[in-house]
Write a structure and sequence with these properties.
mainly beta; single chain; 5-stranded antiparallel beta sheet
C-alpha cells in the first residue's frame, strides 16, 4: 500500500505557471520525503520534476491528448 500527502504553492509570473510541492509518503513501510515542481510550458505541456531526499530524481513531460 502506498500512502502520501502533497502540499503545494502556486506562483504566477508573466505567462509562466509553476507549482512547487513537497511530498511525504510510505513505500512498504519506508518513509520517503521529497520536493518537486510542475510547470505549464508555453506549448501547453506540463513539465514535472521530482527529487526524493537522498534518492532518485525524476523528470516527466506530459502533453494533452
Amino acid at each position: 500500500m502506498v500512502l502520501g500527502a502533497l502540499q503545494a504553492d502556486l506562483e504566477r509570473e508573466t505567462g509562466v505557471s509553476i507549482i512547487f510541492f513537497e511530498l511525504e509518503r510510505s513505500d512498504e513501510m519506508t518513509p520517503i520525503r521529497g520536493t518537486g515542481t510542475a510547470e505549464l510550458a508555453e506549448d501547453g505541456s506540463l513539465e514535472i520534476g521530482i527529487s526524493i531526499h537522498q534518492g532518485d530524481e525524476l523528470q516527466i513531460k506530459v502533453h494533452r491528448w
